[in-house]
Amino acid sequence: MHFVDAKGILTGSGGYYGMNIYRGCTHGCIYCDSRSRCYQFMHPFEDIEVKQNAPELLERVLKSKREKGMIGTGAMSDPYMHCEENLRLTRRCLEIILENGFGVAIQTKFDRILRDINLLSEINRSAKCVVQMTLTTSDDGLCRILEPNVCNTKRRIEVLKKCVRMVFQRLSSLRRFCLLSMILRITSQ
Questions:
Q1: Which domain covers residue 89, as residue numbers?
Q2: What percentage of the chain carries pLDDT values higher than 70?
Q3: Where are the alpha helices (DSSP H) in 28-167?
């Protein structure tokens, strides 16, 4: 893990923004495309680059936005990797998102998101919150092969159920959906 002072934190426009607090990943997923050279990593993918000034950058840029929007995080690097447990940058950024009235769409493979369930619930009340989790297989053994450093799929389903109960409980018209973004064909050969 190494720390950098980033120049920017949000990408996108028109009310839809992307945010990566971390670059790289320690999940070890065998199907990961974030390792691709097109993303111009100048360091080993497993050596996490931490944007230590992410909260300050986010606060500054959100205060300057005239229109509220959605901020997505987790598409390239999981915001709840092991390092987040101590660094708490994701939590601080969620607090800033809430304070500024923006919505959030967050992708993770970790049950660590439950630590921030209160913030996600508050964001959902004032704007909008979307929680996304990858569900690869119900076979725990296969899950450990495909994604060796994250909680298993059964645990992720439990987390999603808690999110529905805690984060989305006050919505009268909750829409649940399933996004199929990658289907792995596993054969015996």
A1: 2-166
A2: 83
A3: 54-64, 84-87, 89-99, 117-126, 140-146, 153-166
Q: Model-level pTM? A: 0.87
The encoded tokens of residue 68 equal 């509220």
pLDDT (0 to 100) of residue 32: 75
Confirm whether 182 is domain-assigned. no
CB 131 within 8 A of CB 103: no
In a domain, 91, yes or no: yes
The structural domain count of the chain equals: 1
Within a domain: 187: no
Rounded Cα–Cα distance for residues 13 and 1 (Å): 30
Among 41-45, 105-109, 181-185, top mean pLDDT goes to: 105-109
Query: Does some domain include residue 174?
Result: no
Which is more confident, 45 or 47? 47
Asked whether the CA dihedral 153, 38, 57, 69 is positive or negative, the reply is negative
Nearest to 85 by CA among 107, 104, 111: 111
